[in-house]
């Protein structure tokens, strides 16, 4: 089976048994009529004349995990990611393109995985994700949201140390937030706090 660019695809790889195929012709419904000395296809017995049917390919899926449509987001100098998911239910994504306010800002060609892009400055913004699968089918989703630039006293810059995040702060306690609105106490006593890098996209501030 060929992809759109002419390269071979492994999506269709039936086990054909017999001595050879004489000829084949496409059918009006999208299948293929085959004549030849074939005894079975994928273990199913066939005669000298048989037809292969092909299921219609399913379109890919494009989905914003964050931000959601209509969201108002508080941003600081700490980077917060845009998270998207692109996948194809019956194959692989050929390309996923993220557009910010009509301009392509990120491209992913590595398959069915999410990727990130930093939030833009304050204002009204529109994000559009368009994904194309190996058969040429496309899907897209658009979200509109607003970012508000704010300054939070005591916000702390975080650095990576292999698989950990290292936070140095001076204060009575350390708080953590995922949205800059709701804060949770995570450490006290001042000094250094370490956590796993899986919490990379959180905000931290010291308290007195």
CATH class of the largest domain: Mainly Beta
Number of domains: 3
Radius of gyration: 26 Å
Which series of helices and strands comes N to C?
EEEEEEEEEEEEEEEEEE
Q: How would you describe this protein?
A:
The protein is mostly beta strands. Helix content is 0%, strand content 55%. It is built from no helices and 18 strands. The strands form 5 sheets. Strands 6-12-11-8-9 form a 5-stranded mixed β-sheet, with no helix packed on it. Strands 1, 2, 3 and 4 form a 4-stranded antiparallel β-sheet that branches. A 3-stranded antiparallel β-sheet has the order 5-7-10, with no helix packed on it.
Features:
mainly beta, 208 residues, 18 strands, four-stranded antiparallel beta sheet, 3 domains, five-stranded mixed beta sheet
Explain the layout of strands and helices:
Elements lengths: L15 E11 L5 E10 L2 E2 L3 E4 L8 E6 L5 E4 L5 E7 L5 E8 L2 E6 L6 E4 L4 E11 L4 E12 L9 E3 L2 E6 L3 E5 L6 E5 L2 E6 L6 E5 L1
Parallel strand pairs: 6-12
Antiparallel strand pairs: 1-2, 2-3, 2-4, 5-7, 7-10, 8-9, 8-11, 11-12, 13-14, 14-17, 15-16, 15-18
């Amino acid at each position: 089976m060929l992809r759109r660019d002419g390269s071979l695809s492994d999506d269709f790889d039936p086990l054909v048994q017999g001595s050879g195929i004489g000829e084949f012709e496409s059918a009006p419904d999208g299948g293929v009529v085959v004549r030849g000395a074939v005894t079975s296809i994928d273990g199913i017995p066939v005669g000298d004349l048989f037809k292969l049917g092909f299921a219609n390919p399913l379109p890919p899926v494009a989905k914003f995990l964050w931000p959601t449509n209509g969201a108002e987001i508080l941003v600081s100098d700490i980077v917060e990611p845009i998270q998207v998911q692109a996948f194809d239910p019956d194959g692989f994504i050929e390309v996923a393109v993220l557009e910010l306010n009509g301009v392509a800002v990120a491209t992913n060609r590595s398959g069915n995985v999410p990727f990130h892009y930093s939030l833009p400055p304050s204002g009204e913004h529109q994000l559009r994700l368009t994904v194309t699968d190996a058969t040429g089918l496309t899907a897209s989703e658009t979200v509109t949201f607003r970012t508000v630039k704010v300054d939070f006293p005591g916000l702390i810059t975080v650095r990576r140390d292999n698989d950990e995040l290292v936070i140095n702060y001076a204060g009575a306690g350390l708080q953590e937030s995922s949205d800059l609105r709701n804060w949770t106490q995570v450490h006290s006593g001042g000094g250094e706090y370490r956590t796993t890098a899986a919490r990379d996209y959180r905000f931290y501030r010291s308290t007195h």
